[in-house]
């Protein structure tokens, strides 16, 4: 059996088992669907993809039907087409841009903080790149003037609603509801352990609000 004829051969073998008329119609529709998909250059014959096509064409009410035990013959036919098509192309995951990532943050207070953090990061990166491009550094050895720290709470200018929104961003109730967690150094991680906000986020925000 040549590879080019394998799907047709498998199809005829399935029909030779004298299935019920409904199954014959479904097999024929599936066979033609796979033929059209292959003719247009399609190489993805995975069950999720073919199942969606079958659902769209009305061959099955739900594409998940292909996973059921009675659908073994349908899977056998799909596998024959998959062997003819060869390996499916590898799907490259699209990386979100920074703006797209930020826009997906639903809470406006957290979105504002993230935007501020990103702006500060970009500023520091720009300064670092400038230093790297500088071939001659001038060292100022003059005495350093002692600068007194600012007096007062830097969060004093915030409105009550702004303070409440910022405090909510690191509250345990809010983090639990999101499936997030604040760990040792104040960083915020999601349920898979991926860092959402860098170390110092939680502790720094509390200091800003005068909570600690």
TrEMBL record:
InterPro entries: GmtX-like
Protein's UniProt name: Gamma-mobile-trio protein GmtX
